[in-house]
Specification:
globular, Carbohydrate kinase, Ribokinase-like, alpha/beta, PfkB_dom, 311 residues, 14 strands, single chain, four-stranded mixed sheet
């Protein structure tokens, strides 16, 4: 199983109405939730560990997980409110405003976390769940507990406007990067994490030297660059008619993990001996899946059948 650990929320998406104005329609979302959904649709055995409300929005989240083949045994239910993310689209690119204080997701503690069963091959972390306390510390502690036995994949998916204590967040992120096997960042994330400059490859390699086996940098239409301590690999993007980019990175992450699993590299020991070239099929699958997502509105990742026959 791939267990996704982090936020599940409601995206309020701007939607034109007949009167000519704009309404905001609720859609299930959150970086970690979106990746779990994409994993389920791509045929992976996936589960979500998250704080989820018992309110109406929380029930929407649970129903969506179940409809997309994602396990819900690790959800932590409470009567706290669901996090809301107001989505603003600018030239097809999503910008978010979050309403998260004391929410069902951000209020979980280490004591709330369920025991991890046998059979989990990888844990995936990231998103805004690494910002708000006490949940952020709980997820960090969970990573520390699991890192010795499970492959750890991290995508910070940084939202600068959501970060209230930047020094504490940067320190937590550095500790979690050091415990990770694979770190995926966008080029914008990399700029935020390493503002001191240098080439993309140099900065990604510095991150590798802190702990990860591989750092994967997505560059939108310019494809992906993967860096290890001693090698570099570029992989092209898949052309697509872009409607918006909501959920694109999350879908890429799911394709990457499914691709690694298909070639036996999601196992921690196998990944430790992998070459950078071994990642190429997984990068291709991630790009193919992301291309489908950006071609339609919202975080709507493809099902495995939609990718059949692609090279």
């Amino acid at each position: 199983m791939i267990l996704c650990c982090g936020e599940a929320l409601i995206d309020m998406i701007p939607t034109p109405v007949a009167s000519g104005g704009t309404a905001y329609a609720p859609h299930t979302g959150g970086a970690i939730f979106n990746t779990a959904i994409a994993l389920g649709r791509l045929g992976a055995e996936a589960g979500l560990l998250s704080g989820v409300s018992t309110d109406g929005f929380g029930e929407m989240l649970v129903a969506s997980l179940q409809a997309n083949n994602v396990g819900t045994d690790h959800l932590i239910r409470s009567d706290r409110l669901t996090t809301l993310a107001i989505v603003h689209l600018s030239d097809g690119k999503a910008v978010y405003s979050f309403y998260d204080e004391n929410s069902a997701g951000s209020a979980i503690t280490l004591a709330d976390l369920p025991a991890l069963p046998d059979g989990i091959s990888a844990l995936y972390f990231g998103g805004i769940s690494l910002v708000a306390e006490p949940a952020a510390s709980a997820y960090e502690a969970l990573m520390a507990q699991a890192a010795g036995n499970c492959t750890i994949v991290l995508d910070p998916n940084i939202r600068p406007g959501f970060i209230t204590d930047e020094p504490a967040y940067r320190a937590r992120l550095a500790r979690m990067i050091a415990m990770s096997d694979v770190v995926k960042v966008s080029d914008e994330d990399l700029d935020w994490i390493t503002p001191e400059g240098g080439t993309l490859t140099d900065r990604a390699r510095q991150m590798c030297e802190a702990g990860p086996q591989f750092v994967v940098v997505t560059k939108g239409e310019h494809g992906v660059t993967v860096v290890s301590r001693d090698a570099e690999l570029d992989s092209p993007a898949v052309p697509a008619a872009v409607v918006d980019t909501v959920g694109a990175g999350d879908t890429f992450n799911a394709g990457l993990m499914v691709g690694l699993s298909r070639v036996g590299l999601l196992d921690k020991a196998s990944l430790a001996t992998a070459t950078i070239e071994d990642l190429r099929p997984a990068l291709t699958l991630g790009a193919q899946a992301a291309a489908v997502t950006v071609s339609r509105a919202g975080a709507n990742p493809p099902w495995a059948t939609e990718l059949e026959g692609l090279g």
